[in-house]
Known about the structure:
Elements: E1 16-17, H1 40-44, E2 47-48, E3 51-57, E4 63-70, E5 73-81, H2 99-108, H3 113-120, H4 126-144, H5 185-192, E6 198-205, E7 207-213, E8 218-224, E9 231-239, E10 251-260, E11 264-271, E12 275-282, E13 289-295, E14 300-303
Antiparallel strand pairs: 1-3, 2-10, 3-4, 4-5, 5-11, 6-13, 7-12, 7-14, 8-11, 8-13, 9-10, 9-12
Amino acid sequence: MKYNRKPVAGYVTTLLFVAMTIACSTEPTLEPANQSPDGAESRLDNAIVGDTLAVVKYANGNFVSFYEFAPGEVAIRHSLVLPDKPGAERARMAATEHIDDVLDQLSAENKSLVDIYKAISTTPESDVMNRLAKAQARLTTAKAAPKEPQSFPDEPVPSQQARAASARSAAAGCAPDYYNDSYGAQWFIDHYINENRFRKSMTNEAYARIRTENDSWTKVAAMAADFGTGIHFSGERFLPCPLFGIGGGCRWEHRWGFDIAPRGVEVWYIYSDKAYSSKAAGYDPCRRVHLGVCNDTPNINAWNF
Length: 305
């Protein structure tokens, strides 16, 4: 089902494609990342598992990147920085370059990674399309395999370390709600949790966690709602318990983990039929996060402790 989708053409005239590689990582850091709220370069250097297939960068500091977490498990990340103070001339929605609408539409139409890349790049490159096509083939094969049974272990309560004060949140208190809109809570839902058949969101929480069991694709979005305090955003994939006790399953395996600067938004489109857990943890003193998901099945569980 689609909601207020816009045509793809016309949104991609100012894009610049840049391909780069990000090293694999293990566990997400819980310390503040050394990143500028305004630049894409530092935000790209995050703790993300797997291979970077492509990156499309925007003049306003936003970017879209394509990843293969593991063979047959691919995702697209849309990283945004929004105007953070009242009086900004351009509307907040302009910061997205409407790319979220494009990604929503093409995902709903079950378009391939190559199709999506070509739709948002003015200079598509053959070597990049070749990488994406190979990743797409591995994804198709993985989805055709028999579905593994799911039996989830308990997920831990968030550690206090994840909520510890950060250097970026050293202010004496939280910033005022400049737009008088509950720190953009409904705006976040309207613009990012508006696609696919089943949806769930939590806003203005100190900590939020959402688990999804997917069929074809799911969309997860997190926002650092406070104007002066960032948050930590992470995701894991569930590895099912092995049959007859053979193999190493029954655990959650890290996929991404990084800080989101104040008023930043991170959106993940995950094209997989596996189960994922996404977490957003606020830093002191405000601990204010928005987290939401648009899923293709009703299998959504959410917690705010």
